[in-house]
Amino acid sequence: MPLNLLKFALSKAHPEPAMFTPRDRLKPSYDAVIIGAGGHGLAAAYYLARDYGMTNVAVLEKGYLGGGNTGRNTTIIRSNYLTPEGVKFYDESVRLWQDLSQEFDLNLFYSNRGHFTLAHTDASLRTMRWRAEVNKHFGIASELVGPEEIQKACPQMDVSCGGKAPVLGALYHAPGSIARHDAVAWGYGRGADQRGVEIHQQTEVFGIQTKAGKVTGVQTSKGEIATEKVLCAVAGSTPRLLHGLGLRSPLYIHPLQAMVSEPMKPWLDPIIVSGSLHVYVSQTARGELVMGASLDPYELHSTRSTLDFVEGLCAHMLELFPFLSHVKIVRQWAGMADMTPDFAPIMGKTEIEGFYLDAGWGTWGFKATPICGKTMAYTLVHDRNHDLIQDFSLDRFKTFALVGEKGAASVGH
Amino acid sequence: MKIMTCPINGPRPITEFAYGGEVRPMPDPNTVDDATWAAYIYNRNSIPGIKQEWWCHVPSNTWFIAERNTLTDEILRTYLYAEAQEGVA
To answer: Is the Cβ–Cβ distance between B8 and B62 less than 8 Å?
Structure first.
């Protein structure tokens, strides 16, 4: 490896091939257009090309690749959900995650840590027991543990929380993991690019053209293109695109903020989540603590961050880890989360023929990246919703058939 | 710190306020059909822009209306619901 690095120092030209083919002009037509070069969009492009040989595909991105919520989340991967629909779906995703580094030939830093969801009240302990039973029924490693086991896995934690709201137990999910989020987008992007898919960054979509209820093309900042199939994977910008098509949805947009500390030597192995304290935290391979909390309390279409957030989250962090009082916060940021009333996504076909939606991923979309790509590719090719996403269609809000996935978000939103 | 003006208590920190969602007319529940009712219950107008929203000053439990730009987070005007009704009438 050091010799390899020396090559970079001595070579005048960059010795590694570029990750992606630079694209200049759009073709007049494509078999399919994917809007949004985040993890979900690129994963769909990758599986379209790999599994179905569909390579005349353009991925359009108004900013840069992986620059939206893919690069803004706190990278937690788990499948200990509450509803059978959710558990099956996310478990399949966790399985796909485990082989991705090999498949991409790119180190995703996929790191299996174990995931503790702390309970500070009897009520939350009851919910965890329920979740553990649903999980076990579907063969997922998930169990209720007491404070002693938590303390053993994380000796630095003050399980008494300063006496205010002591930790009574936790839902322990051994497969809980973290991964390097940018690499996920790059891996899928490169895989799709190598198979002939075109990725166009700095290309904004202004609208989708339809004729007699069918998709006919897309208007972009680089001109118009013809296509019969469009997959929309644009998270916080979804309502704007739906509006142009005359579709209504229950999506609402709130910012979700996160922050990281300065790097420290490794001390925190598991991922720790506390719903009552609105905290989730893990330590990255670089030694930084990555921390997140709940959604901002009101609608906003912006990625601004606030001091209120840092103050609130730090206060809760110190209740669990008082010894961190001298550690500094070095960065904070926000993403626009597209939320649904039942905490389940909106996926699949819509009433417009050829328009497929992958949205409503609010605060839980990163972990689902591989399975979303796979099921959306299937749906787009067959023009039929994949079995795993049957329950997630936009139509469920017309028939009052909500999913009720309260296990979706790590903390109560 | 962000400041919002309560029509009764004047300028206060935003943390004292609770967001109540956009002001939306409710269809008559006795006469409305299921589809329209479902649309009213679930669907939201999540296009960024200037919106009229319900807000509550929590310490005094004062509900009022704020006009806010949901793209820039700029609060343009706050007033009591009664004042809005007078304006309409």
So the answer is: yes
| Among B residues 44-73, those touching chain A with beta carbons less than 8 Å apart | 44-48, 51, 53, 70-73
Closest chain A residue by Cα to residue B36: A398
- Return the domain boundaries, chain B: 3-88
pLDDT digits (tens, 9 = 90+) for A200-258: 999 999 999 999 999 999 999 999 999 999 999 999 999 999 999 999 999 999 999 99
Q: Do B38 and A400 touch (CB under 8 A)?
A: yes
CATH number 3.90.220.20 is the correct assignment for the domain at B3-88:
no
Asked whether residue A138 is domain-assigned, the answer is yes
Cβ–Cβ below 8 Å for A399 and B38: yes
- Please identify which residue in the block is written with the tokens 């558990």: A87
How many C-beta neighbours within 10 Å does residue A351 have?
12
Q: Kindly state whether residue A164 falls inside one of the protein's structural domains.
A: yes
User: Which residues of chain A have a CB within 8 Å of the CB of B35?
Assistant: 398
In terms of pTM, does the model score above 0.90? yes
Closest CA to A142 of A112, A178, A116, A110: A116
User: For chain A, percent helix, then strand, then coil, each to nearest 5?
Assistant: 35, 25, 40
Q: Tell me the C-alpha to C-alpha distance, in Å, between residue B88 and each of A94, B52, B75, B78, B85.
A: 55, 14, 21, 16, 5
Q: How many domains does chain A have?
A: 1
Are A240 and B35 inside 8 Å of each other by CB?
no
Q: Judge whether A315 lies within some domain.
A: yes
Residue of B nearest to A306 (CA): B1
Q: What pLDDT is recorded for position B10?
A: 97
Token pair 């391979």: residue: A285
Which residues 6+ apart lie within 8 Å of A303 measured at CB? A72, A255, A333, A334, A335, A336
pLDDT digits (tens, 9 = 90+) for A254-267: 999 999 999 999 99
Cβ atoms within 10 Å of A81's Cβ, excluding its own: 26
Spatial CA neighbour of A176 closest among A269, A84, A261: A269
CB contact under 8 A, B42 and A250: yes
Nearest CA in chain B to A299: B70
CATH of the domain at A135: 3.30.9.10
Q: Name the residue range of residue A283's domain.
A: 112-176+252-339
